[in-house]
Amino acid sequence: INTMRHLSLWLDRYSERRSQILDTWGGLAESVSQLRSKIPINHIFHPLGEPSEEPRLMCFVDGGEGLRELLGLGVYSVRASALMLSKYGKAGHGELFVRDLDMNVIDYDDHTKERVELLRDCIEYDVAVRCVREHRPTVLVLDGSLYVKASRKRLDCKEYELYRKKFTRLIRICHRENVRLVGVSEDSRSRLLSNHLSSEYGVKFPKHMTDSTILKILSPTHPYRTIHFTPPNRFGVDEQMIKLSLIHISEPTRLLS
């Protein structure tokens, strides 16, 4: 009997909200159709060229962190790993791992978690620099958007200053050694492209629409790259870092072909 009452509550709420939900989705479909007519799709999305057959050494870097309280202090650990992999190597052959880790105590404040994340990024950059210097990869892939890393909100702490120095060093070394630096982000909350399109073409996207949603709606079915654009700097931090990190790479998705 209790189960049936529970199901009845679900059915009642569904009956009440069904029309509202369908009307909302119907309005979104109409908005999307209007957007497609205002934005020059062929100008925004460009087909990819043929993949390069040149031998390529890939380097993938990622890290992690942990934080626990102990007697009023934080005990943290940060770690980073890099996988060096040849594009034409056989599975299990020619693979090389580069690893590092660190741990220490840290005092608690309003930004302790962010400070530990900065230290994690720092050790990732250290491992990445080591790989560039010792192994000269063709492509270096980092976890996370390079733009977000470059425009990270400033914190008044020594960890941020260290983070800024190490990130800038990595960008400069990759530029000097001709290593293609790629940031891979699965964050669906970005609105950098939507803000750019709104500014360029005077369109207004629904507030919940993120870049990933817009790309799914507007993009063609074949592989593509978007136009090159420079996002605005939200926090007014180091402009030099922004410029260094946004070096234009032609057909970036072909780097991993």
Explain the overall architecture.
The chain starts with a helix and ends in a 12-residue tail after the last helix. The protein has 8 helices and 7 strands. It has 257 residues and is an alpha/beta fold. The chain has a 5-stranded mixed β-sheet, with helices on one face. Helix 3 (112-135) runs parallel beside helix 5.
Strand fraction band?
Answer: 15-25%
> Strand-and-helix sequence, N→C?
HHEEEEHEHHEHHEH
Q: Radius of gyration from the CA trace?
A: 23 Å
Give the spatial strand order of the biggest sheet.
4-3-2-5-6
Shape: globular
**First-last Cα distance:** 58 Å
Q: Give the rounded overall mean pLDDT.
A: 80
Low-confidence stretches: 242-257
Major sheet, described briefly? 5 strands, mixed
Short description:
The chain has 257 residues and is an alpha/beta fold. The chain has helices at 2-38, 41-44, 112-135, 146-150, 158-176, 192-201, 211-218, 239-245; strands at residues 45-47, 57-70, 73-86, 96-106, 139-143, 180-184, 224-226.
